[in-house]
């Protein structure tokens, strides 16, 4: 019995381990556009964190700083216990392979088929794979998003929801430990938005991923979030579960849930 208790404690401790840590993050564009004014938060291993905020509040800037697409003016960013801002280019690229980034548009290459889009990403990062291994990985990634039948289609033949799924398959093909979702349901109808939100949950459970999800879609937030932080005027204004923030005494926070 004692051994079971110790094992349970170990599991709980591992789940609480911060896999992303942001400290005092600042970013200004131009002379006066001060977007981030000291953002602090952590994301625990296995957690899906949703970031809410009005347009221009710094949500996308924050996650782009995490993967080194934008350099902050001040602050610290730790991912996998490494300081992102101190990494050399080679080390940063190695880290990026472990982090999937789903852009708003899906960011597919329009001149390539679905198969070629996924294979291109795989060959870029894993050049030693044989053609047979690449094909196996491509079909497996498409199976994870329920779109194996679309393997030979061009992006122009896909609906908005399908493009999001293919973009996600291309992200998943490298088997990332962290996925950053930038407005995953934007521009989609209610039913398709729910399907994408459910897919995010399914990926978390199947692939054991950790995620940051930026969204304006409160149905998506309710379904996917273990925890929510709300950005306002460049800092974190509120934090809690969906249920806690929905009942907040802060009128501005509650406005997201109306």
From TrEMBL:
PROSITE patterns: ABC_TRANSPORTER_1, ABC_TRANSPORTER_2. Residues 20-258 form the ABC transporter domain. It holds the Pfam family ABC_tran. Keywords: ATP-binding, Nucleotide-binding, Transport. InterPro entries: AAA+_ATPase, ABC_transporter-like_ATP-bd, ABC_transporter-like_CS, P-loop_NTPase. SMART domains: AAA. This is ATP-binding cassette domain-containing protein.
């Amino acid at each position: 019995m004692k051994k079971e208790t110790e094992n349970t404690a170990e599991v709980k401790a591992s789940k609480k381990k911060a896999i992303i840590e942001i400290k005092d993050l600042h970013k200004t564009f131009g002379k006066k556009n001060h977007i981030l004014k000291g953002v602090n938060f952590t994301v625990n291993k296995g957690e899906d964190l949703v970031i809410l905020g009005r347009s221009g509040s710094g949500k996308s800037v924050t996650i782009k700083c995490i993967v080194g697409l934008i350099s902050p003016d001040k602050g610290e960013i730790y991912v996998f216990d490494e300081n992102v801002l101190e990494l050399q280019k080679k080390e940063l690229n190695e880290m990026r392979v472990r982090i999937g980034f789903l852009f708003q548009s899906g960011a597919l290459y329009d001149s390539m088929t679905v198969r070629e889009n996924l294979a291109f990403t795989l060959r870029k990062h894993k050049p030693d794979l044989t053609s047979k291994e690449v094909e196996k990985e491509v079909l497996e990634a498409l199976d994870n998003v329920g779109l194996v039948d679309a393997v030979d289609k061009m992006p122009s033949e896909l609906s908005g929801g399908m493009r999001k799924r293919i973009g996600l398959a291309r992200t998943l093909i490298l088997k990332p430990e962290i996925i950053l979702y930038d407005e995953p349901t934007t521009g989609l109808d209610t039913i398709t938005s729910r399907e994408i939100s459910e897919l995010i949950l399914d990926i978390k459970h199947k692939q054991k991923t950790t995620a940051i999800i930026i969204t304006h879609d409160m149905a998506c937030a309710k379904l996917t979030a273990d925890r929510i932080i709300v950005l306002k005027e460049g800092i974190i204004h509120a934090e809690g579960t969906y249920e806690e923030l929905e009942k907040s005494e802060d009128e501005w926070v509650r406005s997201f849930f109306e």
